[in-house]
Amino acid sequence: MAQIVFAAGAPHAPAIIGLFDKAPDDSKKVVTDTYAAISKELRAARPDVVIMFANDHITNSRITFYPDFLIGSAPRHSGPHEWFQEWIGCRDYVAKGSPEVAKSLFAGMTRRGVRMVVREENLNFDDNISVPVTMTDLDKTDIALVPVLQNCTVPPIPSAERCFEIGHALRDFIEKDLPGDMRVALFGSGGLSHEPGGAKYYKIDEDFDRRFLQLCAGGDHKALLKEITLERMEEAGTGGTAEVLSWYPVMAAIGECKGRSFGYTGWPSFRCGIGGVIWDLNTKQ
Amino acid sequence: MAWEKFNPNLAAHDLVQDMKWNPEIRKEFKDNEKAVLDRYALLPEERKAIEERNFRKLYDLGMHPYLGGQLSRFIWGNDAGKGAVEASNKLVASLQGHSRDIPKS
Description:
The complex is a heterodimer.
Chain A: E1 3-10, H1 15-18, H2 25-44, E2 49-56, E3 69-72, E4 76-79, H3 82-88, E5 93-96, H4 99-111, E6 117-119, H5 127-136, E7 144-151, H6 160-177, E8 183-189, H7 206-218, H8 221-227, H9 230-235, H10 248-254, E9 259-261, E10 277-279
Parallel strand pairs in A: 1-8, 2-7, 2-8, 3-6
Antiparallel strand pairs in A: 1-10, 3-7, 4-5, 9-10
Helix pairs in contact in A: 4-6, 6-10
Chain B: H1 11-21, H2 23-31, H3 33-38, H4 44-51, H5 55-61, H6 65-76, H7 85-96
Helix pairs in contact in B: 1-2, 1-6, 4-5, 5-7, 6-7
């Protein structure tokens, strides 16, 4: 049975790269500590593949023809997409892909009643994949990347409960469909509170963010689903905060585990609350 | 913005997508915005709002704010070193009708 060996969730706001040098020291420390821990523990877990749930920011499909889950099955994933290079300010990368795992995921989720779509060409990656890949230097490892770009911004958005169902199907897929000796990492890329392009572009909802991190680290899924509804996410920043839904399939797949976070910052110029969680998989209740 | 106003049929969405995916259209938009806008089935008020940089109006017509943010970067700049700050500031000022919430730094 393939094993989940690592699970984490973290934001990918481009300003944590582009405006890092201008940030106050305590905000810099949160960014550095969070991604350093993820980077170190990801390597220590020795995964063969990382399945990365990240938000699609309407970068691959027209708004009139919009998939909820888009899997990238290219043999290599390069980025960032040309227009986003200047905006993010990160280096270029080419990460190893896994067409086999990607196509198996597509077939496995289809069989389990989850509509995903798959594309063989290099997807357009903006901050969603580019920030976590370059912040962890994933492309400098042998770990294969399978991106799953999730609709968290074009209504109707798959609900929190649906994202949990999808995570349960994901766990079943990993356990039953992948090669028995495969080691799998899961990563949720997105959030925390922000309102990209909205009137509250510079407003960060610290109360929401701190409570969300606390609930994620607490491992009580019922409490999380009860309190952090899609409505509450929208209230904390329309069209952006719901990106935290990319953490939900990860949490559902690993079960109710405790997690650790590495500080929090709501520095307004990041235009996004910043804090991540790594779950301790041996604490499953 | 409230989603009840969201109108996925607006041609402005396609305009932003095409500029994002095609540097030539982006350049043409800078050089001859009218010629680019002429190719899209924009509603008269939608086109006027783009020409007047009136994002409040565009959002009231139903533009998705994420694509609105990208439109502001085609107009006012996309640079990471400054966090695309000019675009964000002008966008927020347009939406709010004031610039009170914009950080000084």
